[in-house]
Amino acid sequence: MLKLFLKMSLALISTCLFTTAQANTLDPTQPPSSNFDLTDWNISIPIDSNKDGKADTVPEKYLAKGFTIKPFFYTGQDGAMVFMSHVGGAKTSKNTKYSRTELREMLRRGKTTVATKGLSKNNWLFSTVSSREHKKVGGIDGRLEATLAVNAVTTTGDPKQVGRVIVGQIHAKDDEPARLYYRKLPNNTKGSLYLAHEPLGGDDQYYEFVGSRASNAKDPEDGVALNEKFSYIIDVKGHTLTVTISRVGKPDITHVVNMEKSGYDKKDQYMYFKAGVYNQNNTGDPNDYTQASFYRLVNSHKNYKH
């Protein structure tokens, strides 16, 4: 059994998208699915219990019935939905470099006759795809809203990888139109937030919200500390990707990405959201880990029938 310890206690700081009323609805005695609607998500966890060479995935029906597994996925003392993934964890496939404890959007909501990949009612499309394809999928365009605090990041390994974690994504068939990163370097007191947009088959385009994504970045004066709550919205309407970061007492920061030339208006480019911790370090100590606590998670799409 891995001996993994929490690095810091959770702080109770509200954000623009997180209200006291919402906080009171989070029951620390209940599993995550009692505090959050997880009926249209499954979860990957970084263990290989059936020895098939890849990380385990828990289907949406089992997740919704109250699945927990400490220290990877459970309800925290303040009712938060806690995700943890260590460097040495099992990977989801042979082509995946990093471990994760991450939710994957499943619009089929447990209906196993619906295919998980491709143009099916399990996934969604950008509205820029031909309208002839719209009826084949579960929704059009999308919006993911979350409030969270990153509690721990890796402190060992390659300097290019230390301290990185992805906390929200839009995943396409193969590429990622949006990846939201938090990064804190070991010698810094606060961390950075930045977005990566990956055009189809192209190089990543980066947009920094707070601080720098560089491996030698100075301590960001207005950075996000571990255990500090913040909120994000990842929103797609047509060719427009809009990502907004909110923090209590500070102005919102928004980046707008024009995806007109990104290639995702092709009919085979189905989409799904992901949220949790996707640990972006595979060179550190195997027991080194990243952890985040989610206080709000809401996904929505045009034409999505719950």
Description:
- By secondary structure, this protein is mainly beta.
- The chain has one domain: Jelly Rolls, CATH 2.60.120.
- It contains three helices and 16 strands.
- Strands 2-1-5-15-8-9-10-11 form an eight-stranded antiparallel β-sheet. Strands 3, 4, 6, 7, 12, 13, 14 and 16 form an eight-stranded mixed β-sheet that branches.
- A hairpin with a 5-residue loop joins strand 3 and strand 4 (81-86).
- The longest helix is centred in the first third of the chain and has 5 residues, at 20-24.
- Residues 1-23 have low confidence and may be disordered.
Task: Identify the notable features of this structure and list them briefly.
single chain, 306 residues, mainly beta, Jelly Rolls, eight-stranded antiparallel sheet, eight-stranded mixed sheet, 3 helices, 16 strands, 5% helix, globular
Summarize the structure.
This protein has 306 residues and is mostly beta strands. Helices cover 5% and strands 37% of the residues. It contains three helices and 16 strands.
